[in-house]
Amino acid sequence: MTAPSLTTAGSLRILKIHEVLEMTSLSRATHFAKLNVNSSSYDPDYPKPIKLGARSVGYVEQEVIEWLQARMEARS
C-alpha cells in the first residue's frame, strides 16, 4: 500500500474512526486489535491512523478503500 502523494491533496480525505468503522463494518474492539501488534487479530496491512492533534487521529480514506479492495480480491 502506498501513501497518497501531496499532488493529489485536493482529493485527499481524512476519515474519523466512526467513518472507518462504518465503511469496514468492524467493531471498535476489532479495529484496535488489527492495529495492535500483540493481538492475534493484528493486520500489518490495516490502515494506520495519522495524528491530527494532541487528542485526535484520522485515517486516509484511500488507504481504507485499498484495504477493503484487497480483502475482496483475497476471497477469490
Query: Helicity range of the residues?
Result: 25-40%
Q: Between the first and last Cα atoms, what is the distance in angstroms? A: 20 Å
What's the alpha carbon Rg, rounded to whole Å?
13 Å
Order of helical and strand elements: EHHEEH
Mean pLDDT: 91
Strand order of the largest sheet: 1-3-2
Overall shape: globular
How many distinct domains? 1
Strand content: 5-15%
By secondary-structure content and strand pairing, the structural class works out as alpha+beta
Short description:
With 76 residues, the chain is of the alpha+beta class. 39% of the residues lie in helices and 14% in strands. A hairpin with a 2-residue loop joins strand 2 and strand 3 (56-60).
How does this structure look, described?
- The protein is α+β, with helices and mostly antiparallel strands and 76 residues long.
- It has one domain (12-74).
- Helix content is 39%, strand content 14%.
- The protein has three helices and three strands; from the N terminus they run βααββα.
- The chain has helices at residues 17-24, 28-35, 61-74; strands at residues 14-15, 50-53, 56-60.
- A three-stranded antiparallel beta sheet has the order 1-3-2.
List the SSEs and their pairings.
Layout: E1 14-15, H1 17-24, H2 28-35, E2 50-53, E3 56-60, H3 61-74
Antiparallel strand pairs: 1-3, 2-3
Which structural traits does this protein have?
76 residues; alpha+beta; three-stranded antiparallel β-sheet; 39% helix; globular
